[in-house]
Design goal:
By secondary structure, this protein is α/β, with parallel strands linked by helices. The chain is built from 12 helices and 12 strands.
Length: 382
Amino acid sequence: MSVPVYLDHNATTPIDESVLEAMLPFLRQQHGNASSRHEMGTVARRAVDRAREQVAAAVGARPAQVVFTSGGTEANNLFIKGAAAMLRPQQIVVGAIDHPCVAMPARDLVRAGWTLRRLAVDADGVADLGDLDVALRQPTGIVSTMLANNETGVLQPVAAIAARARQARAWMHSDAVQALGKVPVDFEALGVHGLTVSAHKLRGPKGAGALVLDKRIELKPLLHGGGHESGMRSGTENVPAIVGFGAACDLAVARLAAFEAHCVALRDELDARLAAAGATVFGRLAPRVPNTTCFALDGIDGETLVIELDRLGFCVASGSACSSMSTEPSATLLAMGVTPDLARGAVRVSLGPDNDAQQIRDLAAAVAATASRLRRLTAMAV
C-alpha cells in the first residue's frame, strides 16, 4: 500500500527526527521529576530551563515570560479566564473567526456578568479595525484575536488591534499557534499582553504549549497545586514534550525562510490550479501564512470531497481539526460572508516541507476529476 500524501499540517505535523532525538533521553534514562532535588531532578530542571529559553527566543521574549502548558487550548483558557478573574466584569472582544478554545471560554464569561462582542472580518477574513473602534467605545477588559486563522491561513493585524486595545486599557491576547514556524512572530512588536504557542504545529510533540506573558499583568491560575511554572500552572512538567518543544522552536526559526519560500511556491501553484478548475479560494487576496489554501467548489460537499480524496491517498481537511466532526458550515467562512451552501464545501490543504510540486499537481487533478464525477452522480440521481 502506498504512503498517503499528508496535506493536513495545520491539524498537526510529523515530529522532526532531531526533535525526537532530543526527547529520547528524557523518555528513557533521564526520567527525573524537574522539581526533585537530586541529580536526575536537576538534569530535568536544566532541560526545562533550556527549553524555556528556546521558546522565548523564537518569539522575541524573555525566558521568565514563558509559562508551559499542555497545549494551545489550555494556554488560551489560562489567559482569558485568568485575566477575567482579575478584572471587573465588562466587555470582552474576540475575533469572529477565532478558534473555539478562545470563543468558548469568552462566551462562558457571560455567566459571570461579562458582555461578549465578536470582532467582524471583511470578505477576505481580515479583522475590521473600524468595527473594533466601535466596540472599544464600551468599557473593555480583554481583547483576543488570533494571529493566523487555522482554516484560511489569513493573517490578522494584531499589532494594530493591540495598539487600540492598550489605548482602551484592555488586556490584549493573541493565539499564534498557527503562525509560529510559518511567519516571524515577535512578542514585543505585536504589543500583546499574552501570546499562545504550541509544539505540535511546528514538528514538535503533542502535549506541550506555552503562554507568553507580559510580566506587568497578573493572571489567576486555572490549576492550583505545587506551584509549578512560578505558580501559574501547577502540575509535574512534561519534561520530554517540553524539551521537544524547545528543539522544535530552534528548528522552526532556523528553517523559517526556506519553509516560507518552499510553501509559497507550492501554495500559489495549487491556488491557480484550483481556480482554473472553478474553485473559490478563500482569503486569496489577503496576507496568509505560506502553507494554507482553503477552497470550495459549487455543489460539492466538503466532507464528501475529503473522504473521496482520502481514498485516492490525499490527507486533507474539511475545516479545523477540532471541529471536523461538526456538520455545520464553517463559522469562519460564514463570518466572511460566504453563503452556507458554499461554506459546506470548504476543504483545507495545509502544506509542509516534505510536500512537492508533483503532489500538488496530482492533488489538483484529483480534485477536478472527483468533483466532475460527483456532479455526474448527482445529475443521474435527479
